[in-house]
């Protein structure tokens, strides 16, 4: 049965034509230049590189956007993973939803405590509260020692994300197996094309609102086949029904031909994931409740395992 108020139209839009009919984001050219100079700066380093995508996408309901459809993703997975990749020596391009969590800073911008809660006034000088000194020092050291290898790029809407993903993929693609794509962003499956959208704020005077949304083209296909065919590509699959998780992850691998799907469930994603490949049984990674409560991130294990597999992938190519 269709969800109330939402009419699903079975019309698949070709990924290639998507870009002809939607507006590019204002930061597209700037991002191109920043990524190109980041790659140039680190050209001689021979470090592996990863593009981490993070956070949810918004889907506007009006061209002059007042309202939009969004999703739950806070960017925890992506930002924690970016930190782990940096600690393993990777160059990281972090493509994240504006105002979602960022590597290192995420520890000071979450709901329970903000930056000011870590500070105190000491005879008119601002200092770190001694209770948090060790933590702040450790986060600051990690940040300072890796920020040169981190490039952050923001998106807000689904369309921004897709344009930026294509642009960055094409720039990174020449690095071949040395580059990993870690596609943790929660990208909307449905959208309203610009030409079918209301131009101005939808008025409430005419009663209930019925939305007709198109299916977002599957961009993993052109990414794997055309934009970055030689790179190591890790996609993510989120479900709420455990029965669907493995079959859908396997189906994606068969259909797109990339290397790994990280599968997770909405309610257990912070402590359990499955790494799914085409020809092996899924590998379960999980951490205990005690570790989770003590602040350990499962991303440490996910990234360590993926980096190991990426190394094997690179060595096959050597
Ligand atoms: O951002 P977050 O830490 O709250 O959630 C992470 C996640 C569940 C969005 C990610 O692990 C994921 O599964 N991304 C892909 C979602 C999907 O399009 O199926």
TrEMBL record:
This is Phosphopantothenate--cysteine ligase cab2. Keywords: Ligase. Its EC number is 6.3.2.51. One of its GO terms (molecular function) is ligase activity. Belongs to the PPC synthetase family. Residues 176-269 form the DNA/pantothenate metabolism flavoprotein C-terminal domain. SUPFAM superfamilies: CoaB-like. It is an enzyme of class 6 (ligase). GO terms for biological process: coenzyme A biosynthetic process. It comes from the Eukaryota. It comes from Coemansia brasiliensis. InterPro entries: CoaB-like_sf, DNA/pantothenate-metab_flavo_C.
């Amino acid at each position: 049965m269709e969800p109330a108020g939402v009419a699903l139209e079975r019309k698949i839009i070709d990924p290639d034509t998507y870009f002809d009919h939607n507006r590019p984001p204002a930061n597209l050219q700037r991002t191109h230049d920043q990524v190109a100079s980041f790659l140039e700066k680190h050209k001689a380093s021979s470090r592996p590189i990863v593009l981490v995508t993070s956070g949810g996408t918004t889907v506007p309901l009006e061209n002059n956007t007042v309202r939009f459809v969004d999703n739950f993703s806070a960017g925890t997975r992506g930002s924690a993973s970016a930190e782990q990749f940096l600690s393993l020596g990777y160059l990281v391009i972090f493509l994240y939803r504006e105002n979602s969590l960022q590597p290192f800073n995420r520890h000071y911008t979450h709901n329970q405590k903000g930056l000011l809660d870590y500070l105190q006034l000491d005879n008119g000088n601002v200092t770190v509260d001694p209770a948090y000194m060790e933590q702040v020092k450790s986060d600051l050291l990690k940040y300072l020692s890796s920020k040169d290898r981190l490039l952050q790029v923001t998106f807000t809407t689904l369309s921004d994300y897709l344009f930026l993903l294509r642009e960055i993929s094409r720039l990174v693609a020449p690095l071949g197996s040395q580059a990993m794509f870690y596609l943790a962003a929660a990208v909307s499956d449905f959208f309203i094309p610009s030409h079918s959208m209301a131009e101005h704020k939808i008025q409430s005077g005419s009663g209930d609102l019925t939305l007709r949304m198109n299916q977002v083209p599957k961009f993993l296909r052109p990414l794997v086949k055309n934009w970055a065919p030689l790179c190591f590509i890790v996609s993510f699959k989120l479900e709420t029904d455990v029965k669907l998780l493995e079959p859908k992850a396997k189906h994606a691998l068969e259909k797109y031909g990339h290397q790994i799907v990280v599968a997770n469930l909405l309610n257990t994603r912070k402590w359990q994931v499955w790494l799914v490949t085409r020809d092996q049984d899924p590998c379960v990674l999980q951490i205990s409740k005690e570790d989770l409560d003590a602040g350990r991130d499962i991303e440490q294990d996910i990234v360590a395992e993926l980096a190991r597999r990426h190394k094997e992938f690179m060595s096959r190519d050597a």
